[in-house]
Design goal:
- By secondary structure, the chain is mainly α.
- It has one domain.
- The chain contains 3 helices and 2 strands, in the order ααββα.
- It starts with a helix and ends with a helix.
- About 10% of the residues are buried.
C-alpha cells in the first residue's frame, strides 16, 4: 500500500466516524423523519466505507454473491445509501409543498 492509499483510507475512516458519531447524537435528540433518514443514510455510507476497506485487504470475498461480474453488496450499499437520502429529501420537499 502506498502513502496516498493510506491517507485515503485513514481520512475516510476518521471523517466517516466523526460524521456517524454526530449523526447518532442528532438521532438521539430528534425524531424528525427526514433527519432520521439522513442519519441512517450516513450510517449506511460508513458501512460502505468499512466494506470497501475489508474488500481491499481481502477480508471479505464475494465469490458466490455476484450479479454479472459485480458483487451484490457493492450494488446494494451505495443504492441503499442513496435511497435513504432520497427519502429524506423527498420528505422535506413534501412538507414544503404541503404548507
Amino acid at each position: 500500500m502506498d502513502t496516498g492509499q493510506a491517507v485515503l483510507i485513514s481520512s475516510q475512516l476518521i471523517l466517516g466516524a466523526i460524521a456517524v458519531f454526530l449523526a447518532i447524537l442528532l438521532w438521539s435528540k430528534t425524531r424528525d423523519i427526514p433527519w432520521m433518514f439522513m442519519v441512517v443514510g450516513m450510517v449506511t455510507a460508513y458501512i460502505e466505507i468499512i466494506n470497501s476497506i475489508l474488500v481491499l485487504y481481502g477480508f471479505v470475498l464475494f465469490e458466490r454473491q455476484l450479479i454479472g461480474n459485480v458483487p451484490l453488496l457493492e450494488i446494494i450499499l451505495p443504492s441503499l445509501k442513496l435511497i435513504f437520502f432520497i427519502a429524506a429529501f423527498f420528505t422535506m420537499v413534501y412538507r414544503q409543498f404541503k404548507r
